Amino acid sequence: MLQVSTLKRKKVSVIGAGFTGATTAFLLAQKELADVVLVDIPQMENPTKGKALDMLEASPVQGFDANILGTANYEDTKDSDIVVVTAGIARKPGMSREDLVQTNETIMKNVAKEIAQYSPDSLIIVLSNPVDAMTYTIFKETGFPKNRVIGQSGVLDSARFRTFVAQELQISIKDITGFVLGGHGDDMVPLVRYSYAGGVPLEKLISKDRLEQIVDRTRKGGGEIVSLLGNGSAYYAPAAALVEMVEAMIKDQKRILPAIAYLEGEFGYQGIYLGVPTILGANGIEKVIELDLTKEEKVALDQSAESVRQVISILSQN
Ligand SMILES: NC(=O)C1=CN([C@@H]2O[C@H](COP(=O)(O)OP(=O)(O)OC[C@H]3O[C@@H](n4cnc5c(N)ncnc54)[C@H](O)[C@@H]3O)[C@@H](O)[C@H]2O)C=CC1
Ligand SMILES: O=C([O-])CC(=O)C(=O)O
Fold this sequence. Notes:
It catalyses: (S)-lactate + NAD(+) = pyruvate + NADH + H(+); (S)-malate + NAD(+) = oxaloacetate + NADH + H(+). The protein is of the alpha/beta class and 318 residues long.
């Protein structure tokens, strides 16, 4: 008889099997980070099963060992190690992320209930927009500790910034680091002073004017893709960002990555979720790293925090 190891693989559930959710599921499986459960609403059960099966049928060709299950039944998510929330509507040209708040808040409440019931010990990463406020909703509705409820914005926003810098300098993306703080809106704060190419501060390599243009393009990066796609928003880079965060937690890498964290005094903010530098490991957000900011940077971060606070203030639970 064949002896099979009883060592269990990690389990990641991805809620929402649309563009971002399906792409995330496929990347997670390809990287063999976990078995993946892809969940959508009952009306989408068959397409969700179809997507999962289609991905699984790529595994012999690509040589990855990971199961991918499509379902509309939250019981299948039971005891997930990590739950990634991508459920909800996405914006179309002419809309802001805030236009999604009412619909997605209702969806978040349902999703939170299911996560709390079936995976009470899980780490949660929220993508659904407006993401700072939706992360807050999931935090309040699950009652999970703050280190276990995390939002994704900064990895994506920094990736956009780094892409534009690499294009500008015509050098490898691998040597460029960048940090974007604040809310995931057009007033986010790309921290040029903390961004480098091969260890050299960007300010020494790119003119002030060009850097300002890159910062502006980064702030509007989501909208640029929305205008080009015409019928939805970005999903390849957002999925890649989610997978980097999941990997940091599953492998307990203690990565320093920007994430949306619940702040209780850090950076001078109280009781809001905001994008800040964090250490991500097996316990989720293990630390918020406070940086020294110039007066100008702090004013910009204050403005971004105020925008997030305004969205949070219109949530039904306030
Ligand atoms: N934070 C970020 O950086 C980013 C956030 N987003 C946001 O992510 C969300 C998803 O975007 P896409 O995947 O492109 O949208 P999509 O429309 O392709 O997929 C969303 C899926 O969620 C499903 N859904 C709705 N209610 C559900 C529920 N209660 N349970 C399970 N599934 C449910 C829908 O049926 C749909 O299949 C949007 O709110 C979008 O704005 C997208 C990109 C980046
Ligand atoms: O722009 C959107 O609506 C989706 C998103 O958050 C992004 O791509 O940054």
